[in-house]
Amino acid sequence: MRPPALRPGDLIGVCAPAGPVNPERLAAGVARLERHFRVRVPPGLDARAGYLAGPDARRADELAALLADPEVRGIVCARGGYGVTRMLAAVDPAPLAADPRPVVGFSDVTALLAWAAAAGVAPIHGPMVCQLGELPEDDVAWLVRLLTDPRPAGRLPWRLAPVGAAAPATAVTAPLLVGNLTLLAHLVGTPWQLDAAGCVLVIEEVSEKPYAIDRDLTQLGHAGALRGCRGLVLGDLTRCTDPALAPGAPDDPGPARSAVIDRLLAFDLPGLAGAPVGHGARNAALPFGGRATVDFAAGTIELLDAAVR
Q1: Nearest to 30 by CA among 148, 106, 127, 96
Q2: Residue 309 lies inside a defined structural domain of this protein
Q3: Could you check whether the bond before residue 243 is cis, i.e. omega within 30 degrees of 0?
Q4: Does 139 share its domain with 179?
Q5: What confidence category does residue 201 fall into, taking pLDDT thresholds of 50, 70 and 90?
Q6: For the whole model, what pTM was predicted?
């Protein structure tokens, strides 16, 4: 179910379901959102409990309060970081199903996107508030378009590189399942496990060693989560090196990309690499579960479904 489109001036609620929030980055992102919408930052969002934005109950109650308020027409998470999976079971999805609203996030918030999808409401894989102040204006405008325009976005201005198994003879039309690779692997065996059957999987990752990327893709394969998958689109593999890069050193996604390609060949899956999605300098939003035509030979993607209605 696609949620209704937002209108200029509608209220967006911000929640922090995972890691603690940097106030300066939050303020910069809120300022960008406020060019288009009203924004509510709940009190207590700056809470901190070690590597979490406060206790599990605080984070769950914050999200539940936004979902219970009919004035809130969209929810954009403040940031990622570990913690979402700890509070998912404590949040009732019924208010979201009864009054669908777009939920926006990526990285560890992949778990919350899967939770929304399990409730029957299509979320948006896209930049979070603390990232919005650092992205090119085009990426901010693109997120606003996905939130407000019920028309399909059409052909994306990307030319991606074919990788993996041989491309199919014709382009594939399938839903896009978009998420962080580590979280997709850690959702296996939970009520929110994603099934890629009949879908094209879009993945991104940050600060994971190449062998860990191999391990997560292998785990998804062993768990049957990739059975029937139509192919894979690779977003950013940001600072996924072994050893870890020194601060300020240039990134090298080559070894991590090689690990992905190895698994694609083992699973006989076609792939495309180079999507500006994830923790890099760009983060283009995508409709989670929306249909797209993916041409693995030409390296193009055309979005056939809007994120909202």
Answers
A1: 127
A2: no
A3: yes
A4: no
A5: very high
A6: 0.97
Q: Which residues of 157-167 are buried (b: 16+ CB within 10 A; e: fewer)?
A: eeebebbbbeb
For the stretch 244-275, pLDDT in tens is 999 889 999 999 999 999 999 999 999 999 99
How far apart, in whole angstroms, are the C-alpha atoms of residue 199 and residue 289? 8
Specify the residue for token string 């990426």: 139
Q: Which of 62, 204, 205, 208 is catalytic?
A: 204
Domain boundary residue among 93, 118, 148?
148
| Residue 207 falls in the annotated catalytic set | no
Distance CA 34, CA 268 (A): 45
Identify whether residues 162 and 274 lie together within a single domain: yes
- The reply to whether 258 belongs to the active site is no
Structural domains counted in the chain: 2
Per-residue model confidence as pLDDT tens digits over 112-145 = 999 999 999 999 999 999 999 999 999 999 999 9
Domain encompassing residue 237: 154-303
Shared-domain flag, residues 16 and 97: yes
CA distance 4 to 133: 26
**Residue in 107, 125, 186, 205 annotated catalytic:** 107
Share of the chain above pLDDT 70, in %: 100
Q: Tell me, what CATH number does 239's domain have? A: 3.50.30.60
- Strand 291-295 and strand 300-303: the pairing is antiparallel
Judge if 126 and 177 occupy the same domain.
no
What's the CA gap between 297 and 285, in Å, rounded? 23
State yes or no: is 204 an active-site residue: yes
Which run of H or of E encompasses 162?
Answer: strand 161-164
**Where is the domain boundary, 110, 125, 148?**
148
pLDDT in tens, 153-179: 999 999 999 999 999 999 999 999 999
Catalytic residue among 36, 125, 186, 279: 279
